[in-house]
Amino acid sequence: NCGHSEDVFLTCTSASDQIDAIGFTLVDEQGRQITEANQRGLLLYNGGTVCDDSFTDNAASAICIELGHAGQQNWDSSGGWSIQTNYDIELDDVSCSTSSWSDCTYSDSHNCGHSEDVFLTCTSASDQIDAIGFTLVDEQGRQITEANQRGLLLYNGGTVCDDSFTVLAAKAICIELGYAGQQSWDSSGGWSIQTNYDIELDDVSCSTSSWSDCTYSDSHNCGHSEDVHLNCVPEVTSSSFTIVNEAGGDGQGRGLRRRVSYLHLSSTICAPG
Predict the structure, then answer these.
(1) Helix, strand, or coil (residue 122)
(2) In principle, which of 17, 45, 72, 135 could form an S-S bond with 64, CB 3.0–4.6 Å?
(3) Is the Cβ–Cβ distance between 199 and 220 less than 8 Å?
(4) DSSP string across 183-215
(5) Distance of CA 61 to the CA centre of its chain
């Protein structure tokens, strides 16, 4: 009892476009599953969107880790993609006390609209910091490997509190990191990434600039406003005497110059009399 105006038209997706309907997934603006890091995607849980009520950086980090990534780069909430209305809202009130999903609570009922859907960008494993010992990270959480850059100090993947911290501690840690010493240190809670980390070390006290002469505690009474930030100077690559002539070149001359490369200084030596 039909006419051709009622003929069915169908578009199928390939297997590579099929999202995993169990657990968390990220999809792009066309609804295709995102498997690579550093791409902003709509967050889905069991095939539905996630509302932003109670959502924090801890939740974003926990979910990125569940997805097999190193952590979260950033997150936001928006209703800007037309595909959002294709999905039910499956999760609300996601609250995480740490960046582990086992420390998160949530509700499968909601009072949200799609303008509150969570979008998430995860970081790749190559952006992951070395979680053993001391490291410095920048404001995006990327590991710092060059000198003369102020970074957030981490120990075993957590921040370091400034209680009892001094220049000797700063120098000892910079030396542990392979640098010549410390340029400066301060404590501040100004970076949003700080709340992604637990506080791992407190009461760092050093009698010399050697880490073997330092004591510390792995319990704390601190907030992230006391997190230590550190700037190290480069490793010494040369320290030697050279003879220069009147034009400053190599050869026989009447002056001696000491080159200290890591301070980029060149100084003469005074003769008595």
Answers:
(1) strand
(2) 72
(3) yes
(4) EEEEE----GGGGGS-EEEEEEEESSSSGGGEE
(5) 10
